[in-house]
Structure formats: structure tokens, C-alpha cells
Amino acid sequence: MLKHAMKGFVAVGLAAVFAAAPVAVAEDDAPGINVGGVSGDDTTGSITGIVKFDGKQAPRRPIDMSTDAFCNNAHDEPARQETFVFGENDTLQNVFVYITGGLEGKDIPDPERQAVLDQHGCVYTPHVSGVVTGQTLTIKNSDQTLHNVKLVNPQKNPAFNQSTLAGASMDKTFSNVEMPLSFACDVHAWMNAYVYVVAHPFFAVTQDKGTFEIHGLPPGKYQVSVSHEFSRFEPVEGTVEVTVAAGQKAEANFTYQVKKK
Questions:
Q1: Fewest CB atoms within 10 A around its CB: which of 79, 149, 238, 252?
Q2: Where are the beta strands (DSSP E) in 153-253?
Q3: Domains and CATH numbers, the chain
Q4: Residue 32: its pLDDT value, please?
């Protein structure tokens, strides 16, 4: 395996063509991105945990997709906003969990999982994801309608704004760590996604049960941190330090709350 050292519009017409063909988008189509890291063996360990939410849980608002007939027919039930998604047992979804310390001086493996951002049912899927610097991010349009992929106000990577026809895709790479990149679609104002650009593959994103796993870590002490898109939420712990032993699982749990005024 290669290793590298770690260093610090015409939408209305298209929509009309496909409006009569509803395409149900199942939640099961979402990838299982709560498991991250790389393949391990008996010389490496893992970090597992859960992210909970302490506070009142506001309901998710339905998204009005009536401006595009294809989008409006793509869901059996209305899609809902993903700014905050709560799971069973007071858990929080779409939290980016990543190693922020402890990798210094260690060989960093290349990522094993392909990075894909899909436009599916007129929403970006996954809503939150990660990519390693220099890794190819494939951005797909699985919908039978026009989208455009807009990188919104990046600070450390070049901006772009490109249309994607039905069935088309594009490949992008990012050279600099940025936490996170924000994606939008000018054709459909409700579409947004966040992609974290990090220097290593040791990250995961919590899903419906708020859990995460990061595999393939060499033994040692690590600092684990979390990030969530909603500016009114904050983690109680911030960063947790854990010790990873060969062949063992260390535990790091987090709790989010509404930011105190």
C-alpha cells in the first residue's frame, strides 16, 4: 500500500420531460459512512463511540421541491432538511468525527474507500462526508434533471461552479485541509452538503444511531474531535483523548447541546 507522510439553465425543460416518472428514493440508499479509517489487523486498534444530544429536539422541516417536477415526484414522502437529524436514544446524526492528534511521526495510509458525492432525489448524498487531501472526489448526478455543483466560498481550495446534466459526473481533488467545504446547487436552492478535507483517512460520520467506528489505528494515544454543521450546537467535550491498543477497541463518546448564550 502506498503511504505518504502526514503534513501539518435549462432545468424547466428537462424536469418536464421526466415529471411523469416518479422515482422513490429510499433512506437505505445512504452509504454506511459511520465506519471509517482503514482495514486493520492484530497490530492495530479501533476507536468506537456514540454522539448524543442533550436538549430539546426540533422537528425536521419538509423541503418544498415544487419548483421542479422531477424533484417533487422523486420521493414517496417529502424530503426533510438535514441541518440537524436526531436518532433513537437522543443521538445526533451527521457529526464528523476525526483524529486531531496522535498521528505525528506515524505513516499515514492512503484512503481505501472511494469518495463519492451524489445528487440523488434532488438532495446531496451523503449530506456530510470526508475526503483526504489529493484524493479524487467523484460528484455524480443520478437524477433525470439538471443540477449544478457549486463550491461555496472556499478558503483554502479553488472555487468552482459547474452544471451537471442527467447521468453526468465530474472528478475533483483538493490540495489543502479545509473543515468543511460547503456545496450548493443554484438550480435547487434547498440542496447543500458538507465535505471535510483532512490529511488522513481516520474519520467517520455518525448515522441514524449516532454511532461511529474508526479502524486501523496504530497503538498509541489519540485526540478525537467532532464537528457539526449547525452553528447553534456545540460539543460538551470538544476533544477526547483515548489510548488505542493493538487488537483492542477504545471508546470515545460525545454529547452536543444548544450553544449557551
A1: 238
A2: 161-164, 169-172, 178-184, 192-198, 203-205, 211-217, 220-227, 233-235, 239-244, 249-251
A3: 3-27+34-258 (2.60.40.420)
A4: 60
Q: Which three cell numbers stand for residue 102?
A: 496522535
Q: What is the mean pLDDT of each run of 10 residues along the chain (261 residues)?
A: 37 34 39 83 96 96 95 94 95 98 96 95 97 98 96 97 96 98 97 98 95 97 98 95 98 96 75
Give the whole-angstrom CA distance, residue 209 versus residue 212. Answer: 9
Strand residues in 55-202 grouped as ranges (E): 86-87, 91-92, 96-101, 107-109, 115-120, 123-125, 128-132, 137-141, 147-152, 161-164, 169-172, 178-184, 192-198
pTM of the full structure: 0.87
Return the pLDDT at 261.
75
Give tens-digit pLDDT for 39-64: 999 999 999 999 999 999 999 999 99
Q: How many CB atoms lie within 10 A of CB 80?
A: 14
What 217-221 contacts at long range (C-beta under 8 Å, 24+ apart), as own/partner pairs, is: 217/37, 217/40, 217/44, 217/45, 217/46, 217/47, 217/99, 217/244, 218/43, 218/44, 218/45, 218/106, 218/244, 219/43, 219/44, 219/45, 219/244, 219/245, 219/246, 220/102, 220/106, 220/244, 221/102
CA distance 123 to 142: 10
CB 6 within 8 A of CB 108: yes
